[in-house]
Amino acid sequence: MLRSQNVMQTFALAESLFAFEQYEAALKHYHRVAFFAGDSMQATVFPRIAECYFQTNDFRNSILYYELASNTTVNDSLRNEYLFARVLSYYILEEYDYALQQLYAFRESNNPHLIDRFHFYHAVISMKRADPDMALDHFILLVDDNDVADELRALFKKARLHHPKPRLAKMLSIIVPGLGQAYSGDFQNAANSFMLNGLLAGLTYSIAVKYSLLDAGLSTFSWLHRYYMGGFTRAEIIAVNRRIEKREILLDNTLKIIGQHKFQQ
After folding, report:
1. What is the spatial distance between Cα 234 and Cα 230, in angstroms, rounded to a whole number?
2. What number is the average pLDDT over the span 92-98?
């Protein structure tokens, strides 16, 4: 077993590697320290291990060790810092429900910086979860300024985040191929869908008149069916993606407004 002096030497080496951003090398030494030093250094080593995993994009292990770090400290401010690190890891993994669950463990604080971070994370995660009303509430709490709050409300209202409606887009394209895409503002795909389905329908009809329904079915109807179904399925996807795009644009514009407000303070 490593002696106490050797443990401290290993820790010093790990700290040196960490300072030079050699995180993978540092991890090996931090793990040795955590194993041989036992409980005595966990509160110091676990956050370092978590940060090394985070910096090497191993966010699963980062979450695990930030959780362990939280369990080994009695400092509420540090617990909140480790909580935000877990939130960010889940956010990067695009697991927004888990990120939000972590936020519910936020410990009440008198630190304005920590409170702002809580509202910021809650707002951004809510946007990613397609909950703009919740996002707006937390953005307003973040700025705490009536004029800026009114500006944000107007921005969110103008964005029309609940449009287009995916089911309506799908139904429109079932009725008329391409109509759902046009409803979502994708006129190029609308024109392509309308013309392609129109050409195939015309060709199917022509073969049926000239030869027989069986010949039409065997030669072109399968293609018509395929592109028709594909058209209204894509119409729904286009509507969903359009709403995501609008949320991303709104988020960017919101952050610009908040950034300007914070900078002027």
Report:
1. 6
2. 97
Q: Report helix angle 112-128 to 96-103, nearest 10.
A: 150
Residue ranges of domains in the chain: 1-73, 90-159, 166-254
Ramachandran category for residue 92: left, alpha or beta (phi over 0 → left; psi -120 to 50 → alpha): alpha
Could you tell me the pTM of the whole model?
0.83
Give which of 196, 195, 193 is closest to 182, Cα–Cα: 193
CA atoms within 13 A on the CB side of 232: 15
Domain 1-73: CATH class, spelled out? mainly alpha
First to last CA, the chain: 55
Q: Once rounded to an integer, what is the mean pLDDT over residues 30-40?
A: 90
Q: How confident is the model at residue 262, as a pLDDT?
A: 72
| Cα distances (angstroms) measured from residue 252 to each of 2, 66, 259, 265 | 52, 29, 10, 20
The mean pLDDT value for 158-169 works out to 94
- Asked if residues 26 and 52 have their Cβ atoms less than 8 Å apart, the reply is yes
